[in-house]
Amino acid sequence: MSWTTQLRKGALELAILNALNGDRLYGYDIVRILRGYDGLMIGDGTVYPILSRLKADGLVRATIEDSPDGPPRKYYELTRAGRDALVEMNQAWESLVSSVEELRRAAHKAGTR
Amino acid sequence: MKNWTPDASSHFEAWLGHVKLSMAGDPSLNADDITQDLRAHVHAELEAAPEPVTMGALERVLDSLGNPTQWSDGAKHPKAPAPSWFQSRVVDTIVEWQKRLAADGGMPVLLVVITLIAIPTFDHIGFPLLAFAYFVARSQVVYAPATVTGRKKWMVYLPLAIGSGVLTGLVLGFPLLLQAGEARWFAPFEAMWTLGCWWVLVGILAAREPKAVRAALTPFAETFDASHARMISLIGAALLIASSVILLAN
Fold first, then answer.
1. pTM over 0.80
2. Per-residue model confidence as pLDDT tens digits over A92-112
3. How many domains does chain A have?
4. ipTM field
5. Is B99 on the interface with A (CB under 8 A)?
6. CB of B82 less than 8 A from some CB of A
């Protein structure tokens, strides 16, 4: 597995939780939202095992509703624990990104000296 | 709910079974939950597809979902063979170019112009021009189908229709083309006999790989399946028998 694929897989969980922040969406809605952001998706199907795991971890809850156009749809929303985890994860992400950026800038400066 | 062709329907159920199997290795995943989501996803994605939903339309959606064995680190991973030189250099490069061309909007006006130049100059520069227009149009239909609408659809479909027609003609008439450079041309019933043998073979191969036929002639062969391939073989067999009888009688 390439480095970028691994990176995307790691970031996807955070992206899904952010997509669900304040919203109640079914799986396909989440996929459509994520498709709008370059470089996030590997294959559309990757989202569903992550949703299953988030549900098992109690970070999201799902309710099934009938659909007039097809099979029943499972709507996901964040639980209290999910919202708390999201705050922590976003902070960790920001700190990670800024640290890597800082390191890159420092290395660039050292290289140009 | 939309109607599906029987082969598309059974293929989808088999694919969901494959997903369940590949998730069985990961205790943190609920395979029933995942397949329920996937069912809703596939139906939603096919909402705009023409009825009945064909294998071709279904396969495009399943391709966009990716390989289930790679969705989860805990899923059962058959040991992936290392990509061959041909796959990594040739196939991946072609796909990369197709994606770039699709992202550029497929240059629909240019496609029409190239196609219109290619038709009268087919014997000279027309063939490579048409092949290029076909390649770009196909990229657009395969990698950016949502953008192929309205007037643009007909601009993109023109080279595709001509290219698919030429491709079909080349494949079905292959034995006769081989004879084109020969001093002695087939007598009519010899030609019929040769075509009969060839179509039996083409039908058998197409019945084994209907997906390849649908992909090659996309979007005009969405409903092509093994029964159509068998029809080609049957017509070939009929030609073969009729021409054999006539040749033996003479």
1. no
2. 999 999 999 999 999 888 876
3. 1
4. 0.85
5. no
6. no
